[in-house]
Design a protein that fits this description.
By secondary structure, the chain is α/β, with parallel strands linked by helices. 34% of the residues lie in helices and 22% in strands. It folds into 2 domains: 139 residues, ornithine cyclodeaminase, domain 1 (2-Layer Sandwich), CATH 3.30.1780; 168 residues, Rossmann fold (3-Layer(aba) Sandwich). GO terms for molecular function: ornithine cyclodeaminase activity.
Length: 360
């Protein structure tokens, strides 16, 4: 069995090792366990440092830093969102993250987070639906069948038992891709010709589109009583998916209001429009779903605590799985004050193994 390296060597999880780790654990088990860790951290929400993500916006997209700490561990994620990347054969979203020891400031983990973000987003969506969707919900419409869609489907099935999918995307090839990738996973899948057809009879509606613009993926007449809406795609200023009238009919639940009011669907509403924080519902401090006819909306934009939970979870799996590399990231001089001496010793070592003089 592998052990976690000493504090001077940082475990690094590459994309390849992340995939192997997820498959070793099992996708469904990974999602369920990750959801459990996310829920644990939401239940201690008040212990965390919280700030809206630090964003650098351009006409091409956005680059963001998402930091948080619980006083013992510090974590952050670097993530981008560039919708045009798909046309260039690149990912819309890429990410990496760091988890550190608050006590000494040393990083304890460096990890890819492109795959991990998709998993934590899906797990968070399903955790929210556990509190907000009807308990008998078994069918879900997924509008937008890109990189996130299969993860959302797997999480809702693993955590809530949702096994009927109604897929729609403006690109039919995306829906066929999603259907193909989910074959043999116990789903009943219908590819629909329109968003209107997709939402017909669906208990849960997940919107997860990528365009960076105000959009109307759902109109008011498409959402019936008792529906739970999982709005994932709207996650930056100027990018929304739902008609404003839907918001006015819904009870709205958010991660962190200061961030969601800037980036979420509620950016369309006055700044004092009532929203409920999801952690309060989980903690029993606020109501979630109260009736079977209530329309609930999880206005999901993603928050740093979810990434913190994901990094904390994968780090807990390293010793048992061994899917990491030892990264020589931290200088470790024999005498902490003699950093320059490390250079001299390295120079001496290089000269002893090579006759060529090192030129400054």
């Amino acid at each position: 069995m592998n052990t976690i390296p000493d504090i001077n060597i940082v475990p690094f999880i590459s994309v390849d090792n992340m995939m192997k780790l997820v498959l070793k654990v099992g996708i469904d088990t990974f999602l369920r366990e990750l959801a459990g860790v996310i829920e644990e951290d939401f239940l201690r929400w008040e212990t965390f440092d919280k700030t809206p993500r630090i964003a650098s916006h351009s006409e091409e997209g956005v680059i963001e830093l998402m930091p948080t700490s619980d006083g013992k561990l510090y974590g952050f994620k670097y993530v981008n969102g560039h919708p045009k990347n798909t046309r260039q054969g690149r990912q819309t979203v890429t990410a990496f993250g760091v988890l550190s020891d608050v006590g000494n400031g040393y990083p304890m983990l460096l990890s890819e987070m492109t795959i991990l973000t998709a998993l934590r987003t899906a797990a968070t969506s399903a955790v929210a639906a556990k509190y907000l969707a009807r308990t008998d919900a078994k069918s879900m419409a997924i509008i937008g069948n890109g990189a996130q869609s299969e993860f959302q489907a797997r999480a809702f099935k693993a955590i809530l038992g949702v096994d009927q999918l109604r897929l729609y995307d403006i690109d039919p090839a995306a829906s066929l891709k999603c259907q193909r990738n989910l074959e043999g996973q116990g789903f009943s899948i219908l590819i629909c010709k329109s968003a209107e057809e997709a939402v017909e009879g669906a208990d849960i509606i997940t919107t997860v589109t990528a365009d960076k613009q105000y959009a109307t993926i759902l109109t008011d007449n498409m959402v019936g009583p008792g529906t739970h809406i999982n709005a994932v795609g709207g996650d930056c200023p100027g990018k929304t998916e739902l008609h404003r009238d839907i918001l006015l009919r819904s009870d709205i639940f958010v991660e962190y209001p200061m961030q969601t009011r800037i980036e979420g669907e509620v950016q369309q509403l006055p700044s004092d429009h009532p929203v409920t924080e999801l952690w309060q519902v989980m903690s029993g401090l606020a109501d979630g779903r109260k009736t079977d006819r209530q329309i609930t909306l999880f206005d999901s934009v993603g928050f740093a605590i979810e990434d913190f939970s994901a990094l904390r979870y994968v780090r807990s799996k390293l010793a048992a799985t061994g899917f990491y590399e030892r990264l020589d990231l931290l200088a470790d001089p024999d005498e902490p004050r003699d950093l320059y001496g490390m250079l001299l010793r390295c120079e001496a070592s290089m000269l002893s193994t090579s006759p060529q003089k090192i030129v400054s």
